[in-house]
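Session log. Operator J.P. requested a structure for one protein chain; no other inputs attached. Running the standard single-chain path with token output.
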Amino acid sequence: MALARSYVPALALLLFSAVSVAQKQPAQQPAGGTAGSAVPPATAAAPASASPSASGSPSATSDAPAAPKVSATGYGYSDTAQPKAGRVAPAGRRHVVHPSGPVATLPGFEMLADGGSRLFVQLSQNVPVEEKRAAGTVTYVLKGAHVVKHNNQNALVTVHFNTPVSRARLVPRGRDLLFVVELRANAQPAWKIEAAKDNSAILAIDFPKGNFLPNAPQAPPPPDSQGDDGENQTVPEKKG
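Structure written below.
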């Protein structure tokens, strides 16, 4: 009886130590889990991939939007990018290919020293020329020629000069180039092709002199010795 009483304190001490150790160790969750157990959100692992349901639609976790991908070099432009379907490039950006051959480099006008006037067209090389006359116009067909600069197609307005030409301009027509001359008076021009040393050429069209300005001042009549009544007037002699 005395021996049993000696073991009671020792047994109580061992039970107290076992309870203390059990309280310090965290409870381990079974692999399968129980119906009433709750998993802390911090320890819950997200599924690696969303598995489709029986109906073929992805699970709720697959509806989350994917993170946008940003290029490491930022934004850039490429000349090899193709335009989107249905969009047409602006007309000003289209590449225009000019045909090879003679080029009209400069149309011009000048007054001549004898009172006449001249139209001319500078060409990169000699070309055949054909003259076509009609009422109020004279057209010169420059065979195989073309213009490169659009400004060379602007009209030459000569209404303020004493010339039968009112205006002239270069007009592309098919594979040829027309030099259309509009006249404000009946005139008979003479044209010729002048060759230069660098194999270039100049089409020169000469017009005769005349009075072609609409409001040209008229020359005053010469003075005469007749009065208003048509009778001759004499200057009285001075007496000394």
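Operator note: Residues 137 and 182 are 5 Å apart (CA to CA).
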